[in-house]
Amino acid sequence: MQNATYLGNGLILARTRWDGHVVVPGYNVDVAIGIVRDGIHEPWTTRLVQELLRPGETYVNVGANFGYFTCLGARIVGSGGKVVSIEANPHVFSILMKTILWAGIVDRVTAYNRAAYLHSGAEFDFTFDYQYIGGGHIRHDVEASAVQTGTPFWSPEALPHLLEADGRWNPSRGLLNFFKVQSLALDDITAGMTADLIHCDVEQAEPFVLVGARNLISRSPRCKIIFEWSGYAYDHGNEEYRTAVRDMWDLLVKENFVVRYLKPMLHDNGAIEVSAPLSFEELLTSPHGDYVALRKGQDPWG
């Protein structure tokens, strides 16, 4: 039965529908709500991971957040499997560590507080809002002159940053906080490894992550990939981002992958639904959501 326990210091230990345990902060209102209230986060993606991953396999979770999918993957692969868990935000990573311990999966999880990227050793400026901490991202050019709001949490003092001039709350407004983080390439930390499932949810930086894992993908014959995508990001991205998207697509084509859109729904019997294989042109106009890439011949929907 799903339940939640207060741990102190604003932290909640939530038990999931699939009998795992995840630590989340009470101030968070994007990722934590589903985990605490419903015992599940992104049910369609949860089901997809459950369908694609097997005991004894290796799961790479990039953008691990508080550890929901890290815990799910670790429970599936078991003590004979491996999980690589990567989270850039140090404020989130400190909670991810608690999830790994409370979930009893420290024996199979290797966690990195780094930003997965094309190459290792770069330094990035990130921005995030504690309340919507799942949406932390590299600071865009338009945010370069922004200043930290001073108070990190919703409070009477924070209201001037959250309300319009007429006193109306605008849920799209946030409280800016910043941090710096070093990058790593998956290829640099997975030498000699193969991956059975790579799962990326890093606020549209997925092309950089996957291109930085080209060798891992190439030497992993059973590799499957789940990645977040939005055609909007391509339309509004700079040339570096668009180049990374094209390089990602070329890599997937070279490695004989097909890409499908995971529809954000579950049927009454719990089944998921995916689109037909997408062309590059179709991908560029596709909506925000999760996508799955599978090699031809290993595609259960093919």
Automatic annotation (TrEMBL):
Residues 61-256 form the Methyltransferase FkbM domain. Pfam families: Methyltransf_21. It comes from the Bacteria. InterPro entries: FkbM_mtfrase, SAM-dependent_MTase, SAM-dependent_MTases_sf. The keyword Cell division does not apply. Keywords: Plasmid. NCBIfam families: fkbM_fam (TIGR01444). PANTHER family: METHYLTRANSFERASE, FKBM FAMILY PROTEIN (PTHR34203), SLL1173 PROTEIN (PTHR34203:SF15). This is Methyltransferase FkbM domain-containing protein.
